[in-house]
Amino acid sequence: MLNNGLTTIAIPVKQTADGVRILPVGPSVPRLFCDFPLLETEAFPFPVVINNPTFHPTEPRDGVFLTKTDRPFPQSEDNKGIIEEALALYLLLLDTRRETSGNLSISSLW
Question: How far is Cα 23 from Cα 108, in angstroms, rounded to an integer?
Fold first, then answer.
């Protein structure tokens, strides 16, 4: 897990004889959390789990708005900022892993 303020990312890892191996997130694991999982976010196209208590989920808690819609929802900018923070944390994770292991197969994370 890595965090920056209220944004946290998590990804499964496994201890092996060669060190720590980063594993892909399981297909049944929600990718977005607002303290609790957002429903049906297992297919959200991001290779790690993102948690932030200030996400503004949709009313049925099945996702977050990230673009402008026909309905007024100014919080989509806040949601985009959280995703951008998560992306920065993910890139930091990859850089750190690359520095400590010498190589990293990014395709194994998807």
Answer: 7
